[in-house]
Amino acid sequence: MKDYNMELTYEEKEILEGKKGETMRKALKSVVLYGETFGAKRLLDIDGPVHLVTSFGMTGLDTVFDMMDEIIKAGIRTKEPFTVDPRPIDYDNVECNEIQKKVFKGLYGNQGRYESQLKKLGLKDNNAFTCTCYMPQVGNIPRKGQIICWAESSAVVFANSVIGARTNRNSGIIELLCGIVGKVPEFGLVTDEGRRAKWIIELKTSKLPNAQVLGSAIGMKVVEDVPYITGLDKFLGKGMNSSTMDYLKDMGAASASNGAVGLYHVENITPEAVEKGRDLLNKGYSTYVIDDQELKNIIESYPILWKDMNAKPSICFIGCPHLSIEQIYDWSDRIYRALDKRGKSKLKLNTVLSAAPDVISKFREDKRAYKKLTDMGAHLTYICPLMYMSNSECSKQPVITNSNKLRTYSRARFLLDEDVLHAIVTGDIKEAEKFD
C-alpha cells in the first residue's frame, strides 16, 4: 500500500489495500488524497446524508457518468439516502421556444441517464432535487455538531451557520465519494479552530438591510474567511425562527457566491454565537463596518450585462436559492397587494418562483392560495434558475432577479425586492414605488 501522510484506521488501510474491492479502494483513495491536499491528518465518520451539487446530465461530463456506472456495477450505494441540487428543465412552468429547447436538449442530453444513476446510488426519492435540502418538507436536516459532507455552496453555509452542523465547501463528486465511504477529511470548517471568526462585521444601518445585498457585501469583503456579525439581532430579534432562517438563507447564499463564505456567526442568533459569543473571534481579527452608504455603494457597483441597457425585462426569477413555503406565501401576498394598488389582476411580466418539489407540493395542497398565485400569472417551478441561464439562447434575454447568486453567475440584472415588484406589475424598470 502507498504511504499516506494521514493517520489511518485498520479498516481504512484494508480498504486502501483493495480488500473491499477496487472501486471502494479508488473511492477512499480519492477522499484521502483530497484530505491530504488540505493538510488533514485523519478521516472522520460522517453522521448524516450527503447533499450533491451535481444534478444535471450535462453533455461533456462523460467521465463522471462512466464513474457512476462503475460504482453502480460494483453494487455500492451511499451510506444514507442523499439529496441533490435542482433539475435544470421544467417546460410546463418555465416557457421556452423551440430554439431554446433545442439548446437545452444538447446541453443536458444526459439528464435521463444521470437521474437513473442517482437513484441507483441512493437518491432519497424522485423529489429530492433542491438546493435547500434542509427545508422541513424535504427532510435532509442535519443536527448541531453533526459531521456531514455537502457541496452546494448555499446549503453548506446554511448547514454550518444556521444549524451548526459541520461541513467544508466540498467539490462536486468528492461529496458523493465521501458519502460512499462514510468518511470526510478533518480540516477547515469541521474543526473547532476552522470555525473561529477572522472578521467582526459591525452592522450600523438605519433599518434591516436587504439580505442579498448584506450577504454580497460580507462575501466580497471577507472572501472565504469566517465573519462574526453584530447588529442584526437589533432587527431580527434574538434566537431563531422561520423568518430569521429565511433571511439568513438568502444572506448566506449571497456571501457564498459573491465571496466564498462557508460559515458565519450572528451575535445572539446563530447557535454557536449564542453558545460562545465573541469568544469565537480570533485574536487580531479585522473589522468591517456596514452602514446605509456602504450598502448603496455595493448595489451601485453591480454591472448590468444586458446588450440593451434600456430593454424591458422579459422574465423574472425569484428563488435562488429555492424559496421556503413561507416565502412563497409572502411573495403571493405582496404581489396581490401590488396589483390591487394599481387596480390590476394580472402580472405584466413572466414571473417564475423557484422552490423544492416537496415545498411546491405542500403549497399546492392549499388550493385557494395556489389558485390566487397562479391566477395572477405567476409560475412555480423546481428548476435552478442558474441552469436556465446556462442556455445561451435564454441568457440573451433581459432577465431580472432579486437573487445575488443568480446575478453573480449570469447576465441577470439584480433588483431589490420592491423594484422587482414594480417591474413584474408594470412590465418596466424605473424608480420603484413602495408597495409594502
How would you describe this structure to a colleague?
The protein has 18 helices and 13 strands. It is an alpha/beta fold. The protein folds into 3 domains: 10-190, Aconitase, domain 3, CATH 3.30.499; 195-296, no CATH class; 315-426, 2-Layer Sandwich (Aconitase, domain 3), CATH 3.30.499.10. Helix 6 packs across helix 10 and helix 8 (211-222) crosses helix 12 (292-300). The longest helix is centred in the middle third of the chain and has 17 residues, at 242-258. It comes from Clostridium luticellarii. This is Phosphomevalonate dehydratase large subunit-like domain-containing protein. InterPro entries: PMDh-L-like_dom (IPR007506). Keywords: Iron, Lyase.
Please give the order of strands in the largest beta sheet.
11-10-9-12-13
Radius of gyration over alpha carbons?
Answer: 22 Å
CATH class call of the largest domain = Alpha Beta
- Note the gap between the termini: 66 Å
